[in-house]
Design brief:
520 residues; 15 helices; alpha/beta; 8-stranded mixed sheet
Length: 520
Amino acid sequence: MMDFDYDAVVIGGAFSGAATALVLKRKHPAARVLIVEKAEEFDRKVGESTTELSSCYMTRILGLSNYLGHHHLAKQGLRMWFAQSADQRFDDCVEVGARYQARLPTFQVDRSTLDAHMLELAVQAGCDLARPAKVSGLELNVGAGQTITLATNGGERNVRARWVVDASGRAAVLPRKLGYFRPNLEHPINAVWARFRGVKDWDSYEWRERFPQYANACRTSRNWATNHLMGHGWWCWIIPLRGGDVSAGLVYDSRIFEFAPGANLGERLRSHLLQHPVGREIFGEAQVIEHDTHAFSALPYTSDKVCAQGWAVVGDAAGFLDPLYSPGLDFCSYTTYYVADLIARDLAGEDVTDAISYYNEQYPITYRLWFETLYKDKYFYMGDAELMSAALLLDVGSYFVGLVAPVYRDPERAFLHLPFEGKAGRIFAGMMKFYNRRLVALAKRKLAAGTYGARNSGWRELYDGFVPDARVRKLIQKGLRRWARAELRNLFLRVPPATQGAPEQAAVRAPVAQSKACGV
């Protein structure tokens, strides 16, 4: 019998690593687990909102309801704002979002704080922690144990373990080492984000005095929502954080939009926010918090293989898609729970060969279909209120039917089945891919005809809210009707002959921000 120092070594102590270790200890209390964390303090992540699915994992599986309620903010859904031009009046911009309080718990989280709390819980559960420590060497022996070399302040030491779990985030230690790391070149998006002070309150008395119709239209707090400023080829998030700071970021498709140059990254971001009429109102007096600006290029990536006997990859180390709709923690939820369960079963003496095969086969399918159904070429139409509002209703409605409802019925079972599983999953994905492709085609026709964003003024869509039961059909039906109207208008569009066949090369009536004149 082999002699191991640990049953599992987890590389990375942030949310995914700590969650994997914590769930493993709960499922197999005798497991000897070491968490290796290189940073003395955690830093910021892209996006700081949870979804209904990841919130279910945090509250029902991890048991964080009390902590999240006391240390983070309750989120009031998502809200999108569209405009035609920078000089448009705030109250003439299109607003799409919920009228009432969110029906299911979601949160605006400070990820560095959440990561620290999760790591503390894992240590309290009996996990060992090496921090600060860096993995300087890694020898994988499938089925025969793994050797991990750790570099700490006290020097280097070797650790033998049955399993090694890569939860290193974008570092993706194992996928890069083993040659499985793949950038998603079909989705060339980049992100810039920062923390701000002095951001205006969406629900203030001043705004009620200035915009009474706006104030009376909504029954919930806009300030606690994740607000989105939408443009052709880009979008911005605005997320309130406990203590008064606000996280704001720009995500853009480099095929369509070019971020304005400048020496100071934070001021470039603030300048972009001020180009949108809503951003100008909100950030007019805001200041970027010094030394708290971040940027990533080539955001999306994946791993061709995520598991073998003795090693597994979870969370952002396995892949990342797009911050829109906050899917990052959803992927963390599925992968951490599945891998923790897999290792617990292996330590209990079960044969996990089929479970390893399932994870390797299904994860790439899940990643690919999630990308193709929600994100592929979406940045072409996200600045058009008519098209994007249809997509929002269909996207979120499908999400509630296919994923949210199952996890709330039986979370322990649902988180062991990755999305788009089986024949039913493929059929569902096929329907979603179809309407996304059609919306992209409609956007390109509008661009060619010069009508892109023509309806980005003078209306507001406030729906009752999404729930994981039959009532969600009403919102899906509303999205279908809006899509159908867009298709009908498309029949009467006149496209200039010079742009026929190459609408993306046409002059763009780009709402708010200047898009690239070519190479759209």
